[in-house]
Amino acid sequence: MVSSTTMRMSDQREDQATPQALSNTAGFRSLRSHGVVARVETAPVKAAVEDFSFYYGDFKALKSISLPVHEKRVTALIGPSGCGKSTLLRAFNRMHDLYPGNRYEGAIRLHPDNTNLLSPGVDPIEVRMRIGMVFQKPNPFPKSIYENVAYGLRIRGEGNRSVLDDRVKEALQGAALWSEVEHRLHDPATALSGGQQQRLCIARCLATNPEVLLFDEPTSALDPIATASIEDLIHELRDKVTILIVTHNMQQAARVSDYTAYMYLGELMEFGETSQIFVNPTRKETEDYITGRFG
Amino acid sequence: MNTPSSASAASLPPLVVSDRLAKKALRHFKERFIEMLLFGAASVSVLTTVGIIWVLVSESYHFFETVPLWSFLTDTMWTPLFADPHYGILPLLAGTLTTSLVALIVAIPLGTTIAIYLSEFARPAVREIVKPFLELLGGIPTIVYGYFALTVVIPMLQLLIPGLSGFNMLGAGIVMGIAIIPYVSSLAEDAMRAVPMNMREGSYAMGGTKLQTALRVVMPAALSGILSAYILGISRAVGETMIVAVAAGMQPNFTLNPLESAQTISAYIVQVALGDLPHGSIGYQSIFAAGLSLMLMTLSLNLVGHVLRRRYREAY
Amino acid sequence: MNSADIPVIRKIIQRNKRWDLIFAIAGFLALLLGVLTFLALFVQMAYTGWERLTPEFFTNFPSRRAAQAGILSAWVGSLLVMLVTALSAVPLGVAAGIYLEEYASKNLVTDIIEINVTNLAGVPSIVYGLLALGVFVYGFGFGQSILSAGLTLGLLILPVVIVATREAIRSIPLHIREAAYGLGATRWQVTRDHIVPYSLPGILTGVIIGMSRAIGETAPIITIGALTFIAFLPASPVGPEFPWLSFEWLKSGFTVMPIQMFNWTSRPEEAFQQNAAAAGFILVLMTLAMNATAIWIRYHVRKDIKW
After folding, report:
1. From B47, B49, B314, C256, which residue has the greatest number of CB atoms within 10 Å?
2. How far is B247 from A164, CA to CA, in rounded Å?
3. What is the longest distance spanned by two Cα atoms in chain A?
4. Which residues of B touch C261 (CB under 8 A)?
5. CATH of region B90-311, choose from 3.30.1360.120, 1.10.3720.10, 1.20.1560.10, 3.40.50.300
6. pLDDT for C201-260, tens place per residue?
């Protein structure tokens, strides 16, 4: 499965060079023939956005959004800049609580316990411990590679060296970074390249086994080769963790996701299986955006 | 252009263009002159440094013609005004170090705590009110702090520690520490606030609390700025004069016990200057030797600060 | 992780948050200590010195009898010294700041000047006193005069003025300069017509903060050997005859507010401590007023400026 995915990825990358978006839909059909889409059907819902609205002060940035996030699948949020896709993503781990004047309405329910992540009674710190996030720009801490990955365990009070060693190794392996940093775990993280830093940030999340992993345009600050390695990684992770990814790059959404949500001006225009959204969108707005006529 | 018109041009008054060209030399001269003036002003600061070094070194040179450098550094008595004068800097150094240490024990934890609180915990409205207030606290003249140490803090300490002298390094050091807090906290806070938000978001997104984020992410990221703040605090403490002159007593005791009274390097200079020493006497020269020691201490602190800043330069 | 771990997580969070709370309280208390110290200092001086704060206190010379002593020579001295300080530090500091920001090219000389300004800001004030004692008092023969004191404090606050000027100039965006240069202005015209006017509030803030530091400085003034018992005023700067201006006052002996306070503080008698408290109260009011003005200017500039 993984190897076929990688093959498909390399096909896809050649497509990226062609200017017409239509060739992507062609590329997408080849994806279907590899059986990737087949896994979509049976996935249970891990998180559900229910009638969710969001306000920056008086400005209503998101308007009654409802959206399922399927377990151990990749869901992509796409749309033109300013459509609110990052705002929606950041609501999943209550990032908006860090800044004054932000307000949530509605619910984001995390299953199986059915917790409303946005409820005032739910501690944002608990939400964030359950849900990891990878940011647009790699943001390693000014510490060693090892300490970056161990951070989540340390703030949980884990002090046992051998436990930390094991989990750090596991996480770095999980993020496909271990072989590159094995011998320099105690070097500063800032010495790594941009792509390595971003994989380090992913390892940092993996170390604590999050239930959901959020990616906020994780490759927008990276070169094409580093981008490919992150996309490969997302493919490998899809078996282990539920992933929600914001991307401004439609090819990327087509390559990595099982489900896609198209957002426009704070509204969810269309949600469905990625194959359906890209090949046969039901709304004209979605089609216009995907074919590059707009956005 | 043909010949007749050029000929007529020659007979006319000079063209406007050449007029401008004529002005150019004058304008150029004026611009250069102004630049030289401004450069002169900028070099006054260099002259100040040269002047400081020259005055300190030349007067100290005369001093060390009389007093051997070795006994200056090793003699444990400083009695320049006695019939049998001793010129050992150690007692003054001990006084300076003890008062500074007490001050730092007060200023660094409190200053850092305030900086973290304002930068990471306090609401913006609180910060906007408190910061200017701290600035006001930093602007109070040190003689006023000295008076406060002598009339309020030391009497309070005497209640806690029976038999404590009315002049002591503890009281002077504590008040000096309070006087230094605003410098430490304001610089350290600036350094922490300069840490980009995405670094904090990384920690918060992992489920870190404010304190964990502050201690484990923001402080390491702002380390060079925080160290600079500490260095500035230390160099303020070492050079601080009036608080110790008023409240630490004026006897050069060779002791590191903060409960005793003692004299610092700076307080000795004040003591001599208050008296009536003739220009050129050994007593007069001794304050320059003391000043040179003080200058070397603060200079090496600045140097250490510079090295630390380079070593822990912000990586973000 | 799975949802069975949630109780464990909650426990960890509870523990972590307890530390958050403890620190928040500690931070608040640390702030409170600062605020309370300030209040205690202010109230104690006001309370102790209250009886002495009469009009006569401002119009009497110092005296051996505490009850008749006043601060006339001290506040007049402070005023005159500040005048010399401002007249020396402001032009020099602003000019140096302009040179470093607008004129200096990146070379060794500029580097030396910059490092030098940074280091000067860290030199203890008493060392400036020694410089003044060697250079102004004996070297130039100015004696223990208002001129010596004013120039000493001028040098002391020079780094403050330079740094403030540079910061103010640096906050002017490049496109303002380009607009002026684009019209054919010379460097000096750009500086005089644009850079200086736009950076004026920032410079003013720095100057006031520097002056408020200078007015409270005691150590360097003592070091140059200023007398502490002055029962006369310097010669008036305005004369009755042509050219109506006299500079005799520059050479006069003097005392200033902080020295007067130090003098009274170092006396054991209770009555003189009252005088010290009263003088300290006035001194703190003066520095507070200056600092508050500076903060006010900065706040308003920050709010009003939109490039």
Report:
1. C256
2. 53
3. 56
4. 143-144, 147
5. 1.10.3720.10
6. 889 988 998 999 999 999 999 998 776 667 777 777 666 666 666 667 777 788 899 999
